[in-house]
Amino acid sequence: MSECMGYGKPVVASSLFKEIGSVDETIAYIFRKGCAPSLAETIHDVYSNYPEALRKASKALHRVKNISW
Q1: Is the dihedral of CA 62, 65, 68, 69 positive or negative?
Q2: Whole-number Cα distances in Å, 32 to 6, 40, 49, 58, 68
Q3: What is the pLDDT of residue 68?
Q4: Alpha carbon distances (Å) from 4 to 11, 37, 57, 66
Q5: Containing H/E element for 31?
Q6: What are the distances in angstroms from CA 40 to CA 20, 30, 33, 45, 46?
Q7: Which of 3, 8, 11, 39 can pair with 28 through a Cys bridge, CB separation 3.0 to 4.6 Å?
């Protein structure tokens, strides 16, 4: 997931990544794992709220830059 955040684009992640602590709602849009309608709704949310999505992407990029590889 860190690789995705490193591009500075909005991130859509399954709830699995939230469960393991890789992402949260401040840096990514999270959908219920295994639920296609939830994924579709989440993608729609990204496009409907693109300024917010870009703010989340900026936060994600900042977070990933502080990760020691």
Answers
A1: positive
A2: 23, 11, 19, 23, 29
A3: 67
A4: 7, 22, 10, 15
A5: strand 29-31
A6: 22, 11, 12, 9, 10
A7: 11
Residue type, 12: V
Amino acid identity for residue 64 in this structure: V
Position 4 pLDDT exceeds 90 = no
Q: What is the pLDDT of residues 7-66, one digit of tens each?
A: 999 999 999 999 999 899 999 999 999 999 999 999 999 999 999 999 999 999 999 987
- Nearest-5° Cα angle at 64, 62 to 69: 140
CA atoms of 36 and 23, how far apart (whole Å)? 20
pLDDT at 54: 96
